[in-house]
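Give me structure tokens for this 390-residue protein.
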Amino acid sequence: MKRAFLSLLLSGVPLFVLPNRASSKDIYIGQTALGSGNGKDAADAFSVAWFNTSGNWGAAASQISPGHTVHLCGTITSQLTVQASGTSGNPTTILFEPDANITMPYLPTTGAINLGTRNFLTIDGGQNGLIQATANGVTNANQVISSAIWGSGNANVTVQNVTMTNLFMRTSGDSETASSRPGVTGVFFPNNLSNIVVRNCKISWAGTPIMVQYTAAYNIQIYSNVVQWCNWGIAVGQGNVSNFVSGLTIHDNRVSGFSPWDDPADKNHHDGIFPWATLAGCAITNVTIYNNIIGPNFGTLGHCTAALYLSGAAGTFSNVLIYNNVMFGTNGAPSEGLMMLSGIQACGVYNNTIDGGSASGNFVGIHVSAGTNVIVMDNVISLTFRSQNV
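Here you go.
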């Protein structure tokens, strides 16, 4: 046996076939070129302009290639636009170095980081990566629809560990502007999508911190994020008729703080987690929502519709499992209930904790409307002061 094994080695026949992986390389980017400007380290970083040039993306040794890591350094004040995709098993990674940040008075409509239609990418905030605006809001110098991270028609993209804040500032009672509703987003993915992951991000002061506007989408995962001071926390909705999502998982997120989006005309209707298929022919199927905490600070009674709002309406919303979520308010209650299920088919609702606090007026814990085959079991629903109905 030993001789046979030795002869096999000497014959040059491989015993194992290793996966084909691109070589890893680190490339450093600053707002302007630094030092020798060769991108080999933070002191010699390439510029944003170099990053944004398509000729610097490719297979050559001097280019950004699949499997490479692009390190962001210092303060960046202009848009970064990804010029090429990674490949399967060799994603291109954009990594914030410690204390790196992207800071502008207002962010671009197509994102401070624009992924375009590129695939196999990882955007990683690292230790404390930050994207922020400094002057965008109802009473600020700018009222601009914008995004921190934007892509369109992407596949196999992960956004993780990034803090995004002050994207649009407003206070309760400010007059409404078009840009302060869902228009300002932290992470925004529209159109055809597959294998999209948004995790471990902290996003505050945006109309919608996480927004997926699907055309045809598969396997969307949104988890372990903290989002607050928003109109909609996490929103997943169609772009047009006959659009669909198959495979949506939302779990372990912390969503709170909707009151700054109260407006006199009541145009904003706050929701914590809000997936919908409301146009003809649209469908969301195979949905799991669990371990999320939503609340408090829902705002003035009537401005918030629900902590968790699932809407089928004219579309199809089916094969849904909702469990181990916590939803609570301290005063006031969402007008449609802390959990609203509208037109949902084949849905199980188990082991959720719903606390209306000291809500006045009608209080609804779980509101099921026009659904079929909806099972609600082993949930805890409470109210400190029961004014009318529970």
